[in-house]
């Protein structure tokens, strides 16, 4: 009964684990990363934040309205020296208190900018900032796609190596068992059995190392796509068919996101320079206020004239003009700093354009070489496998030595590993070529 319960529990665990395993294509991995990875989310938040920046700058061109109020108590009123002529005492000076013990004021004020060059320039800069963050978001997505694709293919290669190691382990175990049977029957030497055991141990060690590398690389992939570490993933074999990438004429680097981002940065610096120059322009604004004041010997709130408290209103409307005359050459220094920043980004644009052209040339060369290498390694792997089968048959018939068999096994393993590595090099080169053409997002549509 206990054994039955244990078997039932293990079956349940196995079924649950299988249910949690996710088949992850490259397209799925990229979409998952764009939806969950912090880098992509933060770039999207920057785009959202740019809308609020536009609203903030726009608010400077809209009326600014505020309410104000205060309550003042004067325990000791100021005495003012007044001529006695007003009080029927010519030639004398009288000290008389002016004002009331209590004063309360409440009102509303309005300020409207009529002309301010910095506000108008700021609105243009805010809209350009939104476009800058939109391009930056696109660049971030491309960086996420490239990083995910590279790690995705590396997981595949390591899994292929692990599968190869497990196959070699099974094959070598069978050969070792044959040699052991021969040794037990006096048909093989002990040194032959020892060599097979050593070879089997080495293959098992390589398998364990590869298994560890697979786990580490899978963890890295989960991190780059923002997936929980305890998730189980499965990468389908069909994702890695070798289909030569289209190599056409050099793409227009002006369409690359890196280039567009620098051009937008240049546009922002031009607007920043104009905003600095705005300090030379006059500013004009309208101001208006309306207030209500209560004064008396008692707290004015809720008091009436019968209590000696009187309320009255007053208002004002004004135009405010500010004309800058001299700022100690501070504005000129700021304009020159803006000029230097603008020239710096223009140099960056030239250098980036050259670097993007270089990326395409290198990616094109690498993909061409990778295709040749994959074809050569595939043929080499086929020949090595054929040689291994022939020598294995000859060994079983006593026509080949154990040394020949071990050498053929090692050669076959090396050929298969070289072929797998060639596929990885091709896939990484393919990503670089797609990136150099500005088409990384096409990986989502595959």
Any overview of this molecule?
The protein is α+β, with helices and mostly antiparallel strands and 446 residues long. The chain has one domain: Outer membrane efflux proteins (OEP) (Up-down Bundle), CATH 1.20.1600. It is 63% helix and 15% strand. Helix 2 packs across helix 4 and helix 4 runs antiparallel to helix 8. The chain is elongated. The N terminus is likely disordered.
Features:
single chain, 446 residues, alpha+beta, Outer membrane efflux proteins (OEP), 4-stranded antiparallel β-sheet, two-stranded parallel sheet, 8 strands, 63% helix, elongated, disordered N terminus
Task: Characterize this entry briefly.
It comes from Flavobacterium flavipallidum. The protein has helices spanning 2-20, 26-36, 38-59, 117-184, 190-225, 257-277, 330-396, 402-436; strands at residues 21-23, 64-73, 79-83, 93-97, 102-115, 232-234, 283-296, 310-322.
Question: How do the helices and strands line up, and which of them pair or pack?
Answer:
Blueprint: H1 2-20, E1 21-23, H2 26-36, H3 38-59, E2 64-73, E3 79-83, E4 93-97, E5 102-115, H4 117-184, H5 190-225, E6 232-234, H6 257-277, E7 283-296, E8 310-322, H7 330-396, H8 402-436
Parallel strand pairs: 1-6
Antiparallel strand pairs: 2-5, 3-4, 5-7, 7-8
Helix pairs in contact: 2-3, 2-4, 3-4, 4-5, 4-6, 4-8, 6-7, 7-8
């Amino acid at each position: 009964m206990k054994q039955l319960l244990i078997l039932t529990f293990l079956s349940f665990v196995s079924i649950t684990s299988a249910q949690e395993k996710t088949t992850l294509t490259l397209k799925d991995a990229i979409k998952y990363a764009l939806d969950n990875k912090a880098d992509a989310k933060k770039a999207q938040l920057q785009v959202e934040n740019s809308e609020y920046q536009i609203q903030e700058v726009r608010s400077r061109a809209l009326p600014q309205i505020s309410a104000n109020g205060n309550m003042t108590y004067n325990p000791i009123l100021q005495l003012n020296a007044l001529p006695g002529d007003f009080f029927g005492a010519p030639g004398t000076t009288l000290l008389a208190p002016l004002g009331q013990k209590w004063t309360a004021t409440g009102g509303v004020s309005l300020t409207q900018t009529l002309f301010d060059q910095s506000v108008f320039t700021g609105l243009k800069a805010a809209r350009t900032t939104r476009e800058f963050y939109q391009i930056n978001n696109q660049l971030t997505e491309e960086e996420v796609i490239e990083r995910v694709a590279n790690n995705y293919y590396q997981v595949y290669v390591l899994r292929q190596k692990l599968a190869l190691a497990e196959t070699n382990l099974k094959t070598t175990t069978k050969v070792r068992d044959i040699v052991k049977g021969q040794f037990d029957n006096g048909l093989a030497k002990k040194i032959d059995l020892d060599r097979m055991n050593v070879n089997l141990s080495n293959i098992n060690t390589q398998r364990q190392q590869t298994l560890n590398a697979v786990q580490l690389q899978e963890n890295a992939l989960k991190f780059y796509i923002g997936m929980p570490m305890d998730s189980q993933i499965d990468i389908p074999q069909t994702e890695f068919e070798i289909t030569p990438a289209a190599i056409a004429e050099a793409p227009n680097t002006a369409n690359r996101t890196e280039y567009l981002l620098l051009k937008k940065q240049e546009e922002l610096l031009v607007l920043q320079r104009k905003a600095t120059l705005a300090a030379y322009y006059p500013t004009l604004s309208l101001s208006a206020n309306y207030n209500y004041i209560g004064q008396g010997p008692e707290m004015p709130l809720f008091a009436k004239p019968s209590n000696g408290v009187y309320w009255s209103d007053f208002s004002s409307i004004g135009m405010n003009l500010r004309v800058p005359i001299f700022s100690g050459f501070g504005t000129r220094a700021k304009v020159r700093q803006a000029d230097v920043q603008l020239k710096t980004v223009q140099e960056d644009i030239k250098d980036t354009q050259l670097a993007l052209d270089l990326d395409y040339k290198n990616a094109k060369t690498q993909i061409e070489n990778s295709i040749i290498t994959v074809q050569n390694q595939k043929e080499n792997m086929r020949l090595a496998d054929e040689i291994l089968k022939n020598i294995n048959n000859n060994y079983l018939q006593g026509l080949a030595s154990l040394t020949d068999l071990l050498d053929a096994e090692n050669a076959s393993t090396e050929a298969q590993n070289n072929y797998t590595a060639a596929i990885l090099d091709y896939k990484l080169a393919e990503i670089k070529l797609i990136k150099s053409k500005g088409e990384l997002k096409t990986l989502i549509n595959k």
